[in-house]
Amino acid sequence: MTFKEIREKFIKFFERHGHTAVPSSSLIPDDPSVLLTTAGMQQFKPYWGELDPEQTIHPSIGKPVGKNAVSIQKSFRTSDIDEVGDESHLTFFEMMGNFSFGGYFKKEAIAYAHEFLTKELGLKISYVTVFEGNEAMGVPEDKESAAIWKELDPAIRIEKQGMENVFWGPTGASGPCGPTTEVYFKNAQGQDIETWNLVFNEYFYPGSREELLNSAPGKKLEKLKTPGVDTGMGLERIAMIVQEKKNIFETDLFEPILRAVIEIQGDKPIQQIRLIADHLRAVTFLIADGLEPGIDERNYIPRRLIRDAMTAHYLYIGAGIDINFCVDPVNTIIDIYRKDYPYLLEKREEIISIIRKETENFSKVLKLVGNVLDLKKQYISFSTEKKWPEVRSGTDIIDLDGKILFDIRQSIGVSWSQMKMVIEKEGFELGDKVLTEYDEAYKKHQELSRAGQERKFGGHGLLLDTGELKAANEEELKKVTRLHTATHMLQAALRQILGQEIYQMGSDITVERLRFDFTFSRKVTPEELLQVESLVRRKVSENLPVNKTEMPIEDAKNSGALTVATAKYPPMVKVYSIDDFSREVCGGPHVSRTSEVGEFKIIKEEASSTGIRRIRAVVSP
């Protein structure tokens, strides 16, 4: 069974059982407490206690989800990034999940999982886990799940585990959470692999998962009024089990990508081939969702991935560096996913261009590192203050300086594991002294970074940081305020020109530009974009007042003020209106009259994800 057939079976199975299929949301979440989308439940978080799933229009499908949903969500986790290259770890993956917001609970969820795995996929379960309970947290042992499994299969093996293993969530700074039951299968090597995790959201925790596990003072689990189900099964892992492969990289999903990498790299160490395949796949989707390589915390992720892949390429390609090493693998990746994510085709050239530009720049850095680590050099200047210590060729151990190695690694932006391989390739040995010096430099850097974060969020850093807008000084504040008001006007113009099915799905504003994501099923034509731009400009030239009114959130909605479906609003909100043109609930800064926005210009329109479009625009004096 191919991975595409598994995808199709999963969606159709749950649709037959009364679930609404919902497309994957973007890898760039609306939730400011997380860098990237890490699980299928993130787009559904508001349905546990905040929004009514039977009344709230879900923007990507144009109707309410209802009490039960199914999705296959693009996901990315940085926690395993240093493990990629082994047989099971990935950065980007697809999470298959079914969800219930009061429609059903443990009995039905476990029965669905058992039926899909054993009947639809024809698999034999190795064993399952259930929560052993935690008296201190007031959470009892999950005897109910164990009994349900036994009823379905009297011979099934059940293991009890604790809070760290089988109690999931919350995701981000707070959210729903609860005990889980996990399903294990044996792979082709006879190893037990955890494949499907069924989470029973019975509680809400007003803090992070780390705070929960450490019993943070003043924070307690609260019972949810309506418990729900949140499940997650990695497509790559279940494909490995179904196809009876020894690891995820032997599946029909990864095999063509590995082949494309090997055709360029040659038959080099498999760990590096896997790393390149994983990182290029992840970067393809991150860039397609609008995240370009850069120095900001979130933008640094694709930069790190590209540089690690490039370093692996540099280590094993032999003489020279091919900056086009990414092209064939990325084309293969897009061809594999083009049916499920057609917007990748539209962005093919852009994705390759961005990766090629980043690799071209980094290839120069790698060549520099090769020169710095050349055994023939006796003294090499790293900066105006530091000199490379004497290095001796022959049989002597090279006496490197761990502090300088850390400085180099920071300056080029690669992982320490990749840096070590570059060093070892150049013939150096890393002794205890060097490693100790490196660790000390790393710890000092962490301390300085923490101090910087404390200053930043203690009111001495950014003048404004709402997650959507950031400004470091008064000038930047004026610019982002103009862009923020322009974003409201852009949405109003889109709804007037393209129709009332337009809803906001995300917004990001920097000093240079605004970025606005919205629901729309097709590419916006150049003529339509010109109409939208002209309408915004006309409203700017009319010098209309921007009025602010405070009212209860329900009154605001009843008045026609637009809201963001996934946002959580306080009881009293601010409503900003521009004549009868624009009316939105918002807490950000705005200009007093539209003429202050300045000249508005759309610079780009593109797909963000399935059913979601993205516009970038600028304003000038």
From TrEMBL:
Superkingdom of the organism of origin: Bacteria
EC primary class: ligase
One GO biological process term: alanyl-tRNA aminoacylation
Annotated CDD domains: AlaRS_core (cd00673)
Domain Alanyl-transfer RNA synthetases family profile: 1-621
GO cellular component: cytosol
SUPFAM superfamilies cross-referenced by the UniProt entry: Class II aaRS and biotin synthetases, Putative anticodon-binding domain of alanyl-tRNA synthetase (AlaRS), ThrRS/AlaRS common domain
Nucleus recorded as keyword: no
Pfam families reported in the protein's UniProt record: tRNA-synt_2c (PF01411), tRNA_SAD (PF07973)
Keyword set, alphabetical order: Aminoacyl-tRNA synthetase, ATP-binding, Ligase, Nucleotide-binding, Protein biosynthesis, RNA-binding, tRNA-binding
GO molecular function: alanine-tRNA ligase activity; aminoacyl-tRNA deacylase activity; ATP binding; tRNA binding
EC number: 6.1.1.7
Keyword Ligase annotated: yes
Homology family: Belongs to the class-II aminoacyl-tRNA synthetase family.
Entry protein name: alanine--tRNA ligase
Native organism: Candidatus Terrybacteria bacterium RIFCSPHIGHO2_01_FULL_43_35
